[in-house]
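Folding follows sequence. Below is one example:
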Amino acid sequence: MLARRLTATFVAALCITALAIQLHLAIDRAHPGGHSVGGAILNYFSYFTILTNLAIAALLGATAANASDARIWNRPSANTALAVYIIVVATVYATLLRHLYAPSGIEFLAERTLHLVVPAVFVGYWLILIPKGTLRLKDQLGWLVLPAVFFVWTLVHGALTGFYPYPFLNVAERGYTSVLWSGLLFSAFFLTLGTVLIIVDWLLGSLQNRWSGEVPTA
């Protein structure tokens, strides 16, 4: 319990620090970029990376304050959903986005933290400190809600403001057909990754039961 709370505190602090740096930079660049501060903040919260890291910071902050397994933020399903999201963040960044922009200085540190460091640390947290063996395949249907809401928000916000956070969701350049296909492909990716993590949960749960001398139930 203590290890979970200490790890949760560390990762939450890491997220909050990097998020604060990115928010400061977004606001600082608002007027030179022709945006209002309000518009810059709205665009900042329109990135899936930001939302996922913010959710991780909130969940782990709550865990640090109360690590009781009865609380929703400590449930394996909630933690696994965020593990799926942050793995998607890291994968998309490494394969599709990393080459598009070359930050430097403190922005480089914040960007790498949100896209690479937090994913690695949080997945380690999930593997080692979250109880295993309780997930079901149907759980991942609920995990698709946030990505689906994000996708719809991106299309609506983009149609109203012309701002699209990612090239593969840019309707102005790619058209709705291409973007909708991207949405379907990402849905499949989320489902596949969710299935993989559920299988890992089952395997680790089975090992934990054997080590503790318990007989798994069907």
Summary: The longest helix spans residues 171-212. DSSP finds eight helices and no strands in the chain.
